[in-house]
What does this fold into?
Amino acid sequence: MKRIALALAIALSGCAATMNTTDWQGNTFAYIAGEGITLQSNVWLNKMPMVGETGVKANAALSLNALTTISPDIEVVQVLFRQGEQEWRLSEEQYEIRPHEENYWEIAASWKGEVDPSQRIDIAVELTDGNGGSEWLVEEQVKVAEVF
It folds into this structure.
């Protein structure tokens, strides 16, 4: 009986470990909750000096588009950025979901990090459908603009 419990615990811990990994092999299109959704991204560094702040802030506007309505059951679970060996997993305080239309949502993100504007950046967004389904939208090699 102890062997079965141990085997079950090992199997479940393996599932938990894989559930938190980023699927950087995805693409800019995913089918979730009966709808095809695409990701289109813009990233920029705000080089404008701000009163009371030090350093450069990275910003992103991530557009989620569908041909019909994006289901209200869909949730954004994770937003990640990767450049070279560096990876930023944003907290919920670092991004905001803005539903502009029934078929168009924007994820507005802002974080402090050592983003190199001369190198392109990869973006991953994990969506869930409220029924246990999960899909990754991934856009690779996005140009980083600079705003002065």
Summary: Confidence is low (pLDDT under 50) at residues 1-19. Residues 2-19 form the longest helix (18 residues).
